[in-house]
Amino acid sequence: MTDQPNTLLYDPDPTLRRLVLSGGGVTETEAVARADAALAASRGAFEAWAVGRLAGIEAKITSEEHAARNAIALAQVRDEAMLYRHEAAARVVDHLNVALSDPNADMARRKKLFRAHALAAAHALAQGPRASRTDIDQLLATLAA
Amino acid sequence: MSERRLDLAQTSVLIVEPNVRLHRVYRDALTAFGTGRISTVPDWDGALARFTEERPHLAFVEVLDEERRAVGLDWIRRVRRDFPFPSRAVPIVASSALTTSKTVCEARNAGANDFMKKPFGVGDLFRQITRVVEFVRPFVVDRAYVGPCRRTQAEGHQGPERRYAKQLRGGSILGQGLQPA
Description:
The complex is a heterodimer.
Chain A: E1 8-10, H1 15-20, H2 28-59, H3 64-83, H4 87-100, H5 107-127, H6 133-144
Chain B: E1 12-16, H1 21-33, E2 37-41, H2 44-54, E3 58-62, H3 71-82, E4 92-96, H4 101-110, E5 114-117, H5 122-134, E6 139-141, E7 146-148, H6 160-170
């Protein structure tokens, strides 16, 4: 036994705080407005890519392995959609991942879920960032029934 | 209450993200925030090399690889254990779509400062940076754990640790020459 303590606490490195809280810079409102403006230029290209990606995903479901790969592709669409403020589309794709994790869903059911969610997400993307969540949810419920 | 201003012009941010399509979006958003230097890396081994070279002030790290292995957590542990100060104490935000309490807990125990759920918007990204800057915690070096102090509150405890937690939340403990526990 020694008297040496097992745990040491250090003052955190203040560098980041000192650099960032200088009083200048941007507020959250300003930062988000600037980011939205910066992303506006590439939003159209994303929407075209995402719709094509969703269509491609839907056509490929032939096995469990494909389903797993498709889940990765879906996650890519979802994450990018959210950053482009396509919240309704991102939510639909996120919801699909949850639906597919149902162990009782067979391949036919999964195909149907994929198709329904892909169509609903494509519809949301076509509507733009202001797409209504409620409308998209209703569309999805109809397609997935 | 006025909004907090962040001046990111002199900061360097590292993004470890296997989805390379997101790199451009991160870059555009962080550039719009005024970030000085942004590095994006698609793999965790490459990220260790980049971390060594660039010594970023902040890192965002995806937890899972495409086979859903938690390689991002190993990356955080390696930074915390293998790097010297001050690099080992750089704020690291773990990120993942898998947000079970187990995953979040594992990220915290690996030494992540915070956890950001995917998908997130640009506002979430800015708020996360604000949170890391404002919520500064002592850095712990222990045989079993290296990383920011995980104690954020001590509910129901009446001893000195409770007062310590309150001080911690208020930030008043900073710069007071913390002693070994």
